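2 proteins. here.
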Amino acid sequence: MLSFRRNALRNASLTLFLYFLSSLSFADSSVTTQRTITKLAEGVYEIRHPDAPSSRRRARRDEQKGALLACQVKQVKQRRLVETAFRERFHQLTRQ
């Protein structure tokens, strides 16, 4: 009776493992990076477009763009301050 249970458990485990492997091998990709065209019949085609970036990637990209924009704004403000200081000093020197 014990060997029957062991065999049944082994067979069930093997069956589940094989099912899992077979489902992976025939599964459609969850991430499509390129456009693919498949001819189904004469004049009938399936077109699969690349997937949009995940929201996590999009959020990171937007965060990086925001940081870059903030850095550029800071540089512009600093440049304007330097230009203003230079202009004021120039006017002081030319008035004398």
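next one coming up
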Amino acid sequence: MKPEARYIWIEIWMRDHGGCCYAGQYALAIAYVQATKAKFDIPSVNPMRCKCPQLRKDLRAMHKAGTITRYDHGLKNLSHKGMAKWLRVYRVIGPHFG
């Protein structure tokens, strides 16, 4: 799948699911991998942290293009061994792709 098609897919997914937050990141990653056949890794320590480098690059490109906004959200009460201390929250801010 070409980058433009992936960006459109991500934008549609985020609009349908109200953006992407803590619970949504795993759902987005799994749906993205299924749709794009991108490479991914699911760590054994915390299987809810699906790592997909291509998705990360696409989200970065969309943020840089002004299609989505992102901010970091701390997880002070949830951070323990194997869990993230923060996460990124993404929101669609306007139709830029598609």
